[in-house]
Amino acid sequence: MLELKGLRKTFSLYSGYTTALSDFNLTVPAGQFVTIVGSNGAGKSTLLNAVAGSVQCEEGSICLDGRYIQDRPEHRRALFVSRVFQDPAAGTASDLTIAEHMALAKKRGQWMGLRRAVTRAVVHDCREQLAILGLGLEERPHSKVKELSGGQRQALALLLALINKPRLLLLDEHTAALDPSTAKLVMNLTRSLVEKQQITTLMVTHNINHALDIGQRTLMMDSGQIVMDLAGGERDALTVEELIKKFAEKRRDAVLSDRSLLTS
Amino acid sequence: MVWIPPLEQGLAYGLMALGVYIAFRILHTPDLTVDGSFPLGAAVAASMLMGGSPPLLTIAVAFLAGVLAGMVTGTLSARLGIAPLLSGIIVMTALYSVNLRIMGRPNIPLLGQTTLFRQLEGLGVERMWTALIVFLPVTLGVGLFLYWLLNTHWGTALRASGSSAPMANALGIDIGVQHTLGIALSNGLTAMSGALVAQHNGFADVNLGVGIVITGLASVILGEALLNGGIAKQITGVLLGSIAYRSMVFVGLRLGFPASDLRLATAALVVAALVLSKYSLRPKSLRRPTVEPTRAAAAQERPGAEEREVKHHA
After folding, report:
1. Helix %, strand %, coil % of chain B (to 5)
2. Rounded to an integer, what distance in angstroms lies between the CA atom of residue B302 and that of residue A31?
3. What pTM value is reported for the model?
4. B229 touches chain A (CB under 8 A)
5. ipTM of the predicted structure?
6. pLDDT block averages, 10 residues each, chain A of length 264
7. Cβ contact, residue pair B310, A263, below 8 Å
């Protein structure tokens, strides 16, 4: 279970301050898949970065399965939290082979010792896991990741993030940098892999269809707070148009051009 | 035998080239500390030899001195947030004074001292082979050690932090620590190279390191042109590149080019190699297609163009 209490984060700009998270509270039961939508600057990415540890909040607590992790740096949360970035180049390392990624992912958050990383067992495991993706990557575990396409890299990043079953998975618009057909493929993989393993997940998306279609709960954020929290029958019955309309109503300085942010 | 001197030099400077390879290619950090840690190794070795220390010990201590210098650079950039390029220049500058302190004067001749090579001569080895007998096992040994190290979990994590910091961080790797250790190892090897070269040349000089990082880079780039691929090929390539570079220098000097033009020629070589490697040295699979890409291919080339445009409107 993930419990966020009173999170606050402000960024200083040339023109003053902007509040990315203000008194943010959220409780996610174990195994729940939550999708998060909202316009640019609503605080979605800051929320994910705060939970992952790459952004430190000024106030508030982050409790994951009974452990308070808000004071740990990012690399010391990695044992419990894994994430997939928007940019495939950030989530995978060009110079490393697929098998080397697998070897490191198996050691996520653990002591990296002086034993050989890519053993026969790792390669075997690698082939088995890659076969799940159905992209033919299982034929080439020793290829460098820079030889892969963006979609293949993102699918690999997703697979690696799920190794050793993390307590929390963070997906930050992980299909936004992909072309539509590849994005669909990666989203289908997300659905099948994550839902099967029932991992607690926060997924930020700009795609309202995905937001309502995948997972069990949808949050809408604005100005660093949750303005709408939908689950169960209410969520199932909602259409994309209704959600966009609701969003316009909920937003304090409602701007209809935000419609363009939310693709369907 | 004319092939011996360039081979000797290539192997001795090869350790420095491996250090440059670690910084520039594995950590993707332009580290200029090397220009200071190379004479640091020479200074440490020369002063210790003057004091009567055993030659092998001087090389080990030179390595440690280089590690220390690298730790300072790494700490400046990773912990104190100074840009890596500037951190290197700062430490390189500071090392100039440190090296003068260690040596007590700008130049120490080692002609009368018991160097590694003199020791071998004392054992009855012919003079022309002594350098190869030292450099071959040392350089190949370091190469094998690096090959092993870079393929361990720790070494793979080091390469990951150089290649993609966000990913390394998300995997629980402390990239600051890794960066510092990597730069330390790089400068340790460089100082070790300086210690060997000083003993081989028969002197240590405070200006021994000026521009050395560019000769190291030239070796790395030449090596990449000769061999590229996995870690084993890269390390072998760097050593071959170092030998190739020293051979070119040797031939150039034999042909009568003035030694004072060496740096200019090396700089030109590095520029030419860097420009060429952007174009023709690339593997075919990575080259841009020459035919006009189709619409679908263009979409593949620019992934997410659609979604980005959407954001742009807002």
Report:
1. 75, 0, 20
2. 35
3. 0.89
4. no
5. 0.91
6. 95 84 95 92 92 94 96 95 94 95 96 95 95 92 94 94 95 92 91 90 92 93 91 89 81 51 53
7. yes
